Amino acid sequence: EAGVAQSxxxxxxxxxxxxxxxxxxxxxxxxxxxxxxxxxQGPKLLIQFQNNGVVDDSQLPKDRFSAERLKGVDSTLxxxxxxxxxxxxxxxxxxLNLNTEAFFGQGTRLTVV
Amino acid sequence: xxxxxxxQPEMSVQEAETVTLSCTYDTSESDYYLFWxxxxxxxQMILVIRQEAYKQQNATENRFSVNFxxxxxxxxxxxxxxxxxxxxxxxxAYRRVMAGGGADGLTFGKGTHLIIQP
Lengths: 113, 118
Known about the structure:
The complex is a heterodimer. Chain A has strands spanning 5-7, 10-13, 19-24, 31-37, 44-50, 53-56, 65-68, 75-79, 88-95, 103-104, 108-112. Chain A is an all-beta fold. In chain A, the strands form two sheets. In chain A, strands 2, 4, 5, 6, 9, 10 and 11 form a seven-stranded mixed sheet that branches. A four-stranded antiparallel sheet of chain A has the order 1-3-8-7, with no helix packed on it. In chain B, 0% of the residues lie in helices and 51% in strands. Chain B is built from no helices and twelve strands. In chain B, strand 8 (64-69) and strand 9 form a beta hairpin. The radius of gyration of chain B is 14 Å and the shape is globular. The termini of chain B are far apart. Classes of the chains: A mainly beta, B mainly beta. Chains A and B meet through strand 5 and strand 9 of A and strand 6 and strand 11 of B.
């Protein structure tokens, strides 16, 4: 069974530029999560989808971050414009449904300079 | 809001010995899950063990076991017979069960860096 796929693995951008991350969850998984992990900290939930609907985006900085999950499968997370403090690893995870184990991808390491 | 606290930034243990990682959490909920995740340098979070709050029996998975103290809101991880491959960051995490049976996303602690001395 293929795991959660994320791309790119690494990205370096200048502040005020835009960036997008892509996530392909495990086939059949209805729930998808995006987490932000700043160096030295645990991951923080940004947004949770159930199929193509948002369950929780209370910690998503909506002035600059957006996420979508068209057709309830792949998802993209966008930052526009990026700030220095957005430098982090962005982890995508998926689960079969809302109360089952979440499986994580390997993340995208973003550096904003 | 729920919080998860890991008070040990780093722990070191000799290979084949036993080590215990500490975790406390704060919640007003009665129904939730607790987890320990392992994150090696590859960055991929790997589930180590899971505990349902309604279960009194402590979860075990081979060399990994937990000591779940619900009243004290404490959830420690014991690793027996430590192996070199256990070296990683370990994160304690909390997940609230919502009305209707679903669950929130995970709330993580800051992690404990586990070093295994050969």
